[in-house]
Amino acid sequence: MTDQSVTHATFSLERSYPVPPARVFAAWADPDAKARWFAGPGSEGHELDFRIGGREVNRGRHEDGGTLTFESVYHDIVPNERIVYASALHAGQTLATVSLTTVEFVPAGDGGTRLHLTEQATFLDGHEQPQWREQGTREWLAALDAELLRPNGPE
Fold first, then answer.
1. Residues forming beta bridges with residue 118, ordered by sequence position
2. Are 118 and 133 a contacting pair, CB within 8 Å?
3. 113 three-state secondary structure
4. Which CATH class is domain 6-149?
5. What is the pTM of this model?
6. How far apart are the C-alpha atoms of 103 and 106, rounded to whole Å?
């Protein structure tokens, strides 16, 4: 018999970017830009259909060599303001995490953007830990910063 467990966690992150909300939003919506900062160099495949009902799939490998598949469905998109999506993370064929994420793009007084991200997640059977997910999310928000500052970044 396998031990079954469920851990619920919610975290919120805020980040400032020195570009307007339209540029930050574009980095989420453009498949090439999103692949660079979200999927990263170790990705084995990234697909993005950025529309309500559209899917995003990112495939890669865990440090132990096992496959990881992160799949999202977009439920709400308000251009330059808000994105809401539900995601599932599979380790091989095993469902590890299911989550709901809301990303808000708020204009800052200096012409930049305050990004607010809130994730509510269910972690199943110890396959992933809340602190791992939060750390990974911090890392890809930092990669988004680098994407926004690169020459010819998303418009």
1. 12, 102
2. no
3. strand
4. alpha beta
5. 0.90
6. 10
